Recover the amino acids of this structure.
């Protein structure tokens, strides 16, 4: 008699656990689908009561940084502030270039930080160096993700601007997870490098296929034909 | 016009740049008698090689009669100066070097590095070559490209514009048009 009662209890307990797991997974899947659905939809104009958005700018290196600086030159700084610049730990040039840009803004404004907003500079471990094999990339990518998580918890940006290479992938993945868990809603913009004419880079392809970028811009019409959800914007350089 | 040409004839420099990469097969190709003779035949007098992290050291030459003056260095903070004073630029396929040279309206030969693992770089060079903004070569075919090139037929590059991207980002975020 006692045995059958305890049996009965344990069965219902395991049923309950199963139900709970199924429930959580369902809620989670629905939430992911909702986030995917709401991403790639413009921000509602009514929410523009907030006049400026904190912006994370992921600088690539060399040519990537030059393209990003060209974009930053025409963006309205009073809307995209404060600005957080992140570059690979092995790349000293990119943050310097960003600093030159920010200093010129301050000079234009007579040193008034209120208008253009403040700028912050950070370095991040890179997931893959040019020429590194794909196998050893796994370990370095894990390290890069942990570091990116730490930085993202500190910054929690509302807008993310990136244009490759791999440095931006951990950041975009974490931003997406933040959206799913309701930690922070962000808008992710990816500008594919002008060097990509026929095929998307691995970073862009990932963000495109997983629909993690709200908008993905390409600089050559051939790419727009191949990837219809991308936006063709002409050359930045 | 004739005076300008005379002035240019005094010193016509070919500037080779590999950026921050190593590209020994390009430096080696520049060091071959075929390439140097072809450049000399085209009227160039000086050859400056920025060899970056490469390990192949080209032969220096002080430019006796009938041959090129050759010099090299690894890195310089004033690459822009070298580009500006060059009559012809031979560059690796990095987009930074390509667009810096095109913006200065200098004739350009881009040499694609076939040793790179993920060789997407040739895409840009080939597209721009198709649009006649530059010549695209491989290290082995460089001397043929130099022999066959007609710099007059190159079309000046019109710089791009970042405003369309900025406009789309602003629209998406619900910011009003300027």
């Amino acid at each position: 008699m006692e045995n059958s009662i305890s049996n009965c209890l344990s069965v219902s307990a395991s049923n309950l656990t199963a139900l709970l797991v199924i429930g959580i997974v369902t809620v989670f899947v629905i939430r992911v689908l909702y986030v995917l659905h709401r991403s790639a939809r413009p921000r509602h104009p009514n929410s523009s009561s907030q006049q400026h958005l904190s912006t994370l700018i992921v600088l690539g290196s060399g040519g990537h940084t030059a393209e990003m600086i060209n974009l930053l030159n025409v963006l309205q700084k009073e809307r995209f502030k404060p600005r957080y610049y992140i570059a690979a730990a092995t790349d000293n040039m990119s943050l310097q270039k960003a600093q030159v840009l920010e200093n010129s803004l301050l000079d234009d404004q007579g040193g008034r930080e209120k208008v253009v907003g403040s700028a912050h500079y950070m370095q991040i471990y890179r997931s893959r160096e040019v020429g590194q094999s794909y196998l050893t990339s796994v370990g370095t990518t894990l390290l890069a993700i942990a570091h990116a998580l730490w930085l993202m918890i500190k910054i929690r940006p509302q807008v993310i601007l990136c244009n490759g290479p791999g440095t931006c992938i951990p950041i975009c993945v974490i931003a997406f997870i933040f959206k799913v868990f309701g930690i922070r809603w962000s808008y992710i913009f990816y500008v594919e490098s002008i060097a990509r004419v026929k095929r998307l880079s691995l970073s862009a392809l990932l963000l495109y296929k997983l629909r993690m970028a709200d908008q993905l811009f390409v600089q050559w019409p051939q790419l727009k034909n191949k990837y219809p959800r991308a936006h063709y914007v002409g050359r930045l350089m | 016009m004739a005076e300008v040409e005379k002035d240019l004839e005094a010193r016509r420099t070919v500037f080779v740049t590999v950026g921050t990469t190593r590209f020994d097969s390009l430096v080696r190709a520049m060091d071959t008698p075929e390439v140097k003779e072809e450049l000399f035949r085209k009227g160039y007098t000086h050859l400056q090689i920025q060899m970056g992290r490469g390990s192949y050291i080209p032969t220096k030459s002080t430019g006796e009669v009938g041959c090129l003056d050759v010099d090299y260095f690894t890195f310089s903070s004033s690459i822009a100066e070298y580009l500006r004073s060059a009559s012809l630029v031979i560059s690796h396929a990095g987009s930074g070097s390509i667009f810096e040279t095109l913006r200065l309206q200098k004739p350009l030969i881009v040499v694609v590095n076939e040793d790179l693992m993920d060789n997407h770089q040739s895409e840009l060079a080939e597209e721009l070559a198709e649009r006649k903004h530059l010549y695209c070569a491989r290290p082995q075919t460089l001397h043929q490209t130099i022999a066959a090139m007609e710099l007059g037929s190159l079309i000046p590059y019109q710089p791009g514009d970042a405003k369309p991207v900025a406009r789309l980002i602003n629209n998406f975020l619900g910011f009003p048009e300027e």
